[in-house]
Write a structure and sequence with these properties.
single chain, alpha/beta, 2 domains, 28% helix
Length: 202
């Protein structure tokens, strides 16, 4: 007897709810959301007899001597897994599997909403950290509006938000020199000792 994806998914979500009920997770969770490829070969046999999902991408060859090597087109086969996990216990809160050709942000909100549902009443997701694969305005806006979670995501140097953040930092520094604070910002300095050479020549 073959199981469809629904029954294993229901079992996983039920197990996560049991863990939440037993207070395994912190009350306020700073979660991580990521998507990773699970590659297969093109000759892999599907249960339903269909083709293995595939996608063609531009990828830089793994040439350590030349990190600027020209990108080439490669075709990869397999699946992609979306997972939300709690980093303290390193326990997954929700996951989703689809074809490797599906974009990272396609199931991002769905799996985050499932994670919130799995821990509802016992814990809550206070923030979620994402990588640049999820850099989509509609997705980030939806997470903010519907879950209230703070989103942490690396910004690119040419983005408006990056320029704004750096300008705030410059203003905070200039006011700190005058002994004044900047509303909404905290300015602090730290000194790092740097050692050159070693032994008597250190």
């Amino acid at each position: 007897m073959k199981l469809g994806p629904e029954k294993p998914s229901a079992m996983f979500n039920g197990a996560t709810r049991c863990l939440a009920k037993r207070r395994v997770f912190p009350k306020h969770i700073d979660a991580l959301l990521d998507a990773a490829d699970d590659e297969a070969t093109p000759t892999y046999k599907m249960d339903a007899g269909g083709d293995v999902p595939s996608v063609t991408r531009e990828k830089r060859p793994d040439v350590r001597a030349n990190k600027y090597a020209q990108k080439v087109k490669v075709t990869v086969f397999g699946w992609k897994i979306w997972i939300v996990f709690e980093p303290v216990s390193k326990t997954p809160l929700a996951m989703k599997i689809d074809g490797i050709n599906v974009a990272d942000n396609e199931h991002a909100y769905e799996v985050l909403a499932q994670a919130c549902a799995n821990i509802e009443g016992h814990a809550s997701i206070r923030s979620v950290a994402l990588d640049r694969g999820f850099l989509d305005g509609k997705l980030l806006s939806r997470i903010d509006e519907e879950t209230g979670a703070i989103v942490y995501i690396p910004a690119k140097s040419n983005m408006t938000i990056t320029a704004d953040a750096r300008e705030i930092a410059r203003r905070a520094q200039a006011l700190a020199v005058q002994g004044k604070p900047l509303d909404g910002a905290t300015y602090a300095e730290r000194v790092e000792r740097v050692t050159h050479s070693s032994g008597k020549k250190a």
